[in-house]
Amino acid sequence: TNPAFKEVLSRIESHQDCRNLPMFSFLILPMQRVTRLPLLMDTICQKTPKDSEKYENCKQALKEVSKVRSQVIPVYFQGKMDVFSNLAGLQSDFLALQPFPLVSSSRWLVKRGELTAYVEDTGLFSKRTSKQQVYFFLFNDVLIITKKK
User: Fold this and answer.
1) Whole-number Å distance between alpha carbons of 137 and 149
2) Other beta carbons less than 10 A from residue 47's beta carbon
3) Distance CA 124, CA 94 (A)
4) 35-88 tens-digit pLDDT
5) Contact by Cβ (8 Å): 12, 18
Protein backbone atom coordinates (compact mmCIF):
# COMPACT_ATOMS: atom_id res chain seq x y z
CA THR A 1 0.00 0.00 0.00
CA ASN A 2 3.03 2.28 0.29
CA PRO A 3 3.45 4.23 -2.98
CA ALA A 4 7.14 4.95 -2.32
CA PHE A 5 7.81 1.23 -1.89
CA LYS A 6 5.94 0.46 -5.11
CA GLU A 7 7.99 3.04 -6.98
CA VAL A 8 11.31 1.69 -5.67
CA LEU A 9 10.24 -1.88 -6.40
CA SER A 10 9.24 -0.93 -9.94
CA ARG A 11 12.58 0.80 -10.49
CA ILE A 12 14.49 -2.23 -9.17
CA GLU A 13 12.48 -4.68 -11.29
CA SER A 14 13.12 -2.66 -14.44
CA HIS A 15 16.90 -2.58 -13.83
CA GLN A 16 18.93 -4.52 -16.42
CA ASP A 17 20.52 -6.70 -13.72
CA CYS A 18 17.06 -8.01 -12.85
CA ARG A 19 16.26 -8.68 -16.53
CA ASN A 20 12.78 -7.17 -16.00
CA LEU A 21 11.81 -10.10 -13.78
CA PRO A 22 9.26 -9.36 -11.07
CA MET A 23 10.25 -9.54 -7.39
CA PHE A 24 8.24 -12.74 -7.07
CA SER A 25 10.60 -14.62 -9.40
CA PHE A 26 13.50 -13.90 -7.02
CA LEU A 27 11.48 -14.90 -3.98
CA ILE A 28 10.53 -18.21 -5.58
CA LEU A 29 14.09 -19.27 -6.50
CA PRO A 30 15.01 -20.83 -3.12
CA MET A 31 11.72 -22.76 -3.05
CA GLN A 32 12.27 -23.86 -6.64
CA ARG A 33 15.70 -25.23 -5.74
CA VAL A 34 14.37 -27.06 -2.67
CA THR A 35 11.66 -28.75 -4.74
CA ARG A 36 14.17 -29.87 -7.39
CA LEU A 37 16.82 -31.27 -5.03
CA PRO A 38 15.03 -34.60 -4.41
CA LEU A 39 14.61 -35.05 -8.17
CA LEU A 40 18.32 -34.45 -8.68
CA MET A 41 19.29 -36.83 -5.86
CA ASP A 42 16.93 -39.49 -7.19
CA THR A 43 18.56 -39.25 -10.61
CA ILE A 44 22.01 -39.54 -9.03
CA CYS A 45 20.85 -42.62 -7.10
CA GLN A 46 19.54 -44.21 -10.30
CA LYS A 47 22.92 -43.67 -12.00
CA THR A 48 24.94 -45.02 -9.05
CA PRO A 49 25.69 -48.79 -9.18
CA LYS A 50 23.56 -50.60 -6.57
CA ASP A 51 26.49 -52.72 -5.37
CA SER A 52 28.61 -49.63 -4.65
CA GLU A 53 29.05 -48.27 -1.11
CA LYS A 54 28.21 -44.85 -2.56
CA TYR A 55 24.70 -46.12 -3.35
CA GLU A 56 23.77 -46.34 0.34
CA ASN A 57 25.14 -42.81 0.93
CA CYS A 58 23.13 -41.60 -2.03
CA LYS A 59 19.92 -43.20 -0.71
CA GLN A 60 20.53 -41.61 2.70
CA ALA A 61 21.13 -38.21 1.07
CA LEU A 62 17.89 -38.59 -0.92
CA LYS A 63 16.03 -39.39 2.29
CA GLU A 64 17.48 -36.33 4.06
CA VAL A 65 16.86 -33.97 1.14
CA SER A 66 13.27 -35.21 0.90
CA LYS A 67 12.85 -34.63 4.64
CA VAL A 68 14.12 -31.04 4.32
CA ARG A 69 11.77 -30.45 1.38
CA SER A 70 8.77 -31.71 3.34
CA GLN A 71 9.70 -29.49 6.30
CA VAL A 72 10.21 -26.38 4.19
CA ILE A 73 7.12 -26.64 2.01
CA PRO A 74 3.87 -27.42 3.82
CA VAL A 75 1.53 -29.87 2.10
CA TYR A 76 -1.26 -27.34 1.52
CA PHE A 77 1.20 -25.04 -0.23
CA GLN A 78 2.70 -27.73 -2.48
CA GLY A 79 0.38 -27.46 -5.51
CA LYS A 80 0.75 -23.70 -5.79
CA MET A 81 4.53 -23.85 -5.40
CA ASP A 82 4.85 -26.46 -8.16
CA VAL A 83 2.89 -24.21 -10.52
CA PHE A 84 5.04 -21.18 -9.66
CA SER A 85 8.20 -23.27 -9.79
CA ASN A 86 7.36 -24.46 -13.31
CA LEU A 87 6.51 -20.94 -14.45
CA ALA A 88 9.68 -19.50 -12.96
CA GLY A 89 11.70 -22.17 -14.75
CA LEU A 90 10.00 -21.39 -18.03
CA GLN A 91 10.51 -17.66 -17.46
CA SER A 92 14.24 -18.17 -17.20
CA ASP A 93 14.18 -20.17 -20.47
CA PHE A 94 12.42 -17.36 -22.33
CA LEU A 95 14.37 -14.27 -21.40
CA ALA A 96 13.77 -12.91 -24.91
CA LEU A 97 10.08 -12.45 -24.06
CA GLN A 98 11.04 -9.78 -21.69
CA PRO A 99 8.40 -7.48 -21.04
CA PHE A 100 6.03 -10.47 -20.97
CA PRO A 101 6.13 -11.93 -17.43
CA LEU A 102 5.19 -15.62 -17.32
CA VAL A 103 5.08 -15.85 -13.54
CA SER A 104 1.69 -14.75 -12.29
CA SER A 105 -0.58 -15.90 -9.49
CA SER A 106 -3.45 -16.23 -11.98
CA ARG A 107 -1.54 -18.15 -14.71
CA TRP A 108 -0.90 -21.86 -14.98
CA LEU A 109 0.46 -24.20 -17.61
CA VAL A 110 -2.27 -26.30 -19.24
CA LYS A 111 -0.26 -28.23 -21.83
CA ARG A 112 3.06 -28.17 -23.61
CA GLY A 113 4.55 -30.18 -26.41
CA GLU A 114 5.99 -30.38 -29.89
CA LEU A 115 3.94 -29.75 -33.04
CA THR A 116 4.54 -29.71 -36.77
CA ALA A 117 3.61 -26.40 -38.33
CA TYR A 118 3.00 -26.13 -42.06
CA VAL A 119 4.39 -22.86 -43.38
CA GLU A 120 3.32 -21.55 -46.77
CA ASP A 121 6.05 -19.69 -48.64
CA THR A 122 4.73 -17.78 -51.65
CA GLY A 123 7.41 -16.66 -54.08
CA LEU A 124 7.14 -14.66 -57.26
CA PHE A 125 6.52 -17.70 -59.50
CA SER A 126 5.93 -20.51 -57.01
CA LYS A 127 4.05 -21.53 -53.94
CA ARG A 128 5.80 -23.87 -51.50
CA THR A 129 4.67 -25.48 -48.25
CA SER A 130 7.30 -26.57 -45.76
CA LYS A 131 7.15 -28.32 -42.40
CA GLN A 132 8.61 -26.76 -39.29
CA GLN A 133 8.89 -28.29 -35.83
CA VAL A 134 7.66 -25.89 -33.13
CA TYR A 135 7.27 -26.21 -29.40
CA PHE A 136 4.18 -24.78 -27.75
CA PHE A 137 3.18 -23.77 -24.23
CA LEU A 138 -0.55 -23.41 -23.63
CA PHE A 139 -1.39 -21.47 -20.49
CA ASN A 140 -4.87 -20.70 -19.22
CA ASP A 141 -4.64 -17.22 -20.77
CA VAL A 142 -1.94 -17.26 -23.47
CA LEU A 143 -0.40 -19.55 -26.10
CA ILE A 144 3.34 -19.29 -26.74
CA ILE A 145 4.80 -20.93 -29.85
CA THR A 146 8.58 -21.24 -30.04
CA LYS A 147 11.27 -22.89 -32.09
CA LYS A 148 13.12 -25.54 -30.15
CA LYS A 149 16.89 -24.97 -29.92
Assistant:
1) 15
2) 8
3) 35
4) 788 888 888 988 999 898 899 999 999 899 888 877 776 543 545 555 556 666
5) yes
Distance of CA 25 to the CA centre of its chain: 10
SS3 100: coil
pLDDT tier at 127, thresholds 50, 70, 90: confident
Spatial CB neighbours of 28, under 8 Å, sequence gap ≥ 6 = 81, 84, 85, 88, 103
Q: How far apart are CA 83 and CA 91, in angstroms?
A: 12
Question: Which of 141, 89, 145, 80 is closest to 112 using CA atoms?
Answer: 145
